[in-house]
Request: fold
Amino acid sequence: MTDAVLPELRASSFASDDAKARIRARYRSETRFRFYGLLAIGLTAMFLVVVLADILIRGLPAFTQHWLRLEVTVNAAEIDPKGTRDPAEIRQGDFQLLIRDALRAQFPEVTDRRGRRSLDGILSSAAADGLRKRVVADPSLVGQTLDVPLLLSDDIDLYFKGIGTRIERHPGRGILTSNGTTGDVVLHSSSNDFAPYLDAIKRALSVRARDIRREADRLRAIVSKLEARKAELDRASKIGTLSGGEYPALVSDIESLGQNIKTLDADAAALQARFDAVGSDEKLDETVPSQLVAINGGLVKITQLGNSTATGTVLLPLQSTADAAGGTWQVVSYLTPEAGRRVNDREVGWLERLKEKGLVERAFNWAFFTSGDSREPELAGIRGALVGSALTLLVTLVLCLPIGIAAAIYLEEFAPKNRLTELIEVNINNLAAVPSIVFGLLGLAVFLNFMGLPRSAPLVGGLVLALLVLPTIIIASRAALKAVPPSIKEAALGVGASHQQAIFHHVLPLAMPGVMTGTIIGMAHALGETAPLLMIGMVAFIVEPASGITDAATVLPVQIYLWSDLPEIAFQAKTAAAIIVLLVFLFVMNGTAIYLRKRFERRW
Reply:
């Protein structure tokens, strides 16, 4: 009877509307689950791409460096006045004077003291080091004229890389005439070529006026709160309550903020009036975008701008006062005002002239990998951090690899199964989840304060990171040992091998791919750690690379941390570039782990 009824019940239950609705609901639920999974993967991939793209965009400029190639005369009177050709004497020569003279020869019109100081600032403080090494190595070069590449300063390097301000160049349409070649000149255009730039300046004035009004309104809100508090104190004083020293401070703050508000309102009104005066000429100062005109081989900085006429100061002398036809001259707009740039308009003229002469070169920045840290961004490199990271990881590997494998073998194969063993296993698993800074505090208390080991040394860093990585290696090694089929060990024991021989001769070799994978992943984790190393003092400014594990050193993550806190814009690119190097090392180590697992993995 049961066999006869069940098919009918089963058929009727699946064919009912309720059963079909439940099936459709399960299908919809499965579809939603797949969609959520794909959405999670897509969001993760999008965030990863955004982060990597941002790091690459910021860091790639640091891998190149601009140089200025000049003909430098090695003047014997400055370098070797005694004529001894002694390398020790030559090394003490003033090579910086030689390169300054070579640069000033490119701009003979710069005769004022301030201009010469700015011109000298184009070059790095270490620009003469290459020339000094070259002449010291070959004293016969004294008295000759050499073609020398000179390192530019960080601000100039950023300018040539287009970092710091956006530059727009627009060719002129009409005929442009100038009434002079030097000093203050008047430029006249036949086609109102300056009208668009005048409108842009007026719009910038309107934006500034709006921002100033917002700041004034913010201060008014603060004054309102202070006046309300002052009124409370006035009422309290009438019933005998003392206000202490708060009342005079409130009065002073209200008066000071009131004066600031009046000044801001006046500034905003003046800027708005200039904006409302449509078509009137505008005086350009360092607070508005700079407008430069390149005409007849020279460069003019506009100081007053109209629709068709502009007054300016010559930065680079014009070759003539001949009329410039449309398309032969151009307006160069620097959208960041001069007050907000590290390179002023006069220096811009010099740099553009050097670039036109083909004296500026761009090359790969090998110094980034071969130099140590420096306060000068153009001289800073990661060699010291790389050496420190290598020594620290070497100490970590030497300590944690044998100890971790031995602990894993003992716990997995030899330790008795009792409460003590279970307690050890639980604590090892818990240590893998302990915040890394706790290991730094442990290293500070034990290795530095108690044992007296040298501060900021790879030895101490390696000890701390070994404690951090050891639980990961033990857990990964135990998992690798468990993955080996028990039949391997049983077969070895069956042919007369001891327990130790079975483990070390048969099980461990087969588990080594998993052990090495866990070790590499643990070392990659150690390579990226910063917090525990900061606790043991590896945050010092280290210029020279460490020569041993007890010398003062820094590591790559700490170097990134130090650079990220510096105000110079060039260090932002250095920071991103160091992150790229660190990510490359991490990718290589993780890729190696994946390769070893795939290469030596055996499927049972």
Remarks:
- The radius of gyration is 36 Å.
- The chain is about 60% helix and 10% strand.
